[in-house]
Amino acid sequence: MYDPNIQDFYERVGRLNKAHARGLGFEAEGLRGRSYYRRPKRISVLRPLLLLVFLAAVGFGLKGTAYHVLGPHAFAERVASLQVDEAVSGRFLSADPVTQWVARAIERAMTLRG
Asked: Which residue spans traverse the membrane (predicted)?
């Protein structure tokens, strides 16, 4: 009796034998096979970007906390003294709108807390 799918079966067995000879194995759909564990992990572009965003948020948070604790005048005096010695540090530590917004957010949180 002739089976019409026998040619397809032998082609598939041939492909599996070739893959097995190359070091691959049969992997069913939806399961983790050997290639899952052997495949090198790709480095995502998102991870370094998230790290930079996190570091910027921490930096602005620290600046905003210092601005809140010291007050605007004392913070400006300290930044002015830094600008005399190190212009770059003074520029980075100057009270920008984000720093002032963080300080206002801290002030609101402190008043709500009591």
From this structure: 44-62
